[in-house]
User: Fold this.
Amino acid sequence: MLAMNYRGPYRVRAERKAPPQIKHPGDVILRVTRSCICGSDLHLYHGLVPDTRVGMTFGHEFIGEIVEVGSSVKKLKVGDNILVPFNIACGMCSFCKQDLYSNCHESNPEATASGGFFGYAHVAGGYDGGQAEYVRVPYADVSPTIIPPDIHPEDAVLLTDAYPTGYFAAEMGGIKPGDTVVVFGAGPVGMIAAKCAWLFGAGRVIVIDHVEYRLEFVKDFAQCEAYNFRSMRDPVQFLKQQTGWYGADVCIDAVGCDASGSALQTITGKKLMLQAGAATALHWAINSVKKGGIVSIVGVYGPTDNLVPIGNVVNKGITIRANQTPVKRLLPRLIQHIRDGNIEPKKIITHRVPLEEVSDAYHIFSAKLDNCIKTILIPPSAN
Assistant:
């Protein structure tokens, strides 16, 4: 089969590799019809995530048609079109029973800090991802969901991560009616977080980024304010001024370890790798939120230390909420929001690229060329 193949930082290509096989009775094999490149994939692409091994296939956002089922699979059959949440959950451990599907204790033998994720280095279990013609999906009776006939396939593929993560960021913010919400990062997740903030009753939504075409896009998509931090002397001071010197009620870090904006953070976190990525957006979130406010973190950071102003967290009485998104728990609500016309996730898709051109697709997305917001990869077997 054809699959994306990681060859090292900034080096990916489409290559032939052996198709996946059933390894456990609970597995299914999926013929991928659509997959996405995620901002989190860029952390791998840029070499910022430990134990990202040469030969891996990335991709944790994908949908497809089942072509083979394991002997113990009961809820799915050959021919079903399903969406597959990015987190791999066993459904039986104590965390899954609490609906903490992203913290599954059984799906990732490599770590106790996170569950298993598709296509995301060996710190997340070492599972190959869906930027390929075929993919093995374990625990198939747990999280994979048959795509409802009234849900467009391009909305369905965004239900695997980007849309749930943006919604989850807003949910963790504990937004109350009239709250001022600041979202750091105008990537796909940040855009959706800004859009979803209104669903929780926000009175004002502000997005901070430095890429002008993304700022223009999010203003239209999420009907929010959007500002370029490059035009500010100090983003924290700007946001304090915007909020009567109190600070925002809720700040969302939708950037993570690849953030720009601080020379110190960039040098120590991205160049020298003395910390787990550049925590610039997290600094700004902590320092911009009001006393007693909430900081919601969905941006990805590595498993080692970061330079974070913890003293400000304590002295301001800030609540920090963070996790990988438990997609399975949110799916019924998110599908209903699409049906009700509250959000149309596929509007953020700007590029549809053949899997054969995956190298160019990563370059365009990473370098922010051609006004790229969100990229879908189309395998040759899906045409």
In short: The radius of gyration is 20 Å. The domain at 162-322 is CATH 3.40.50.720 (Rossmann fold).
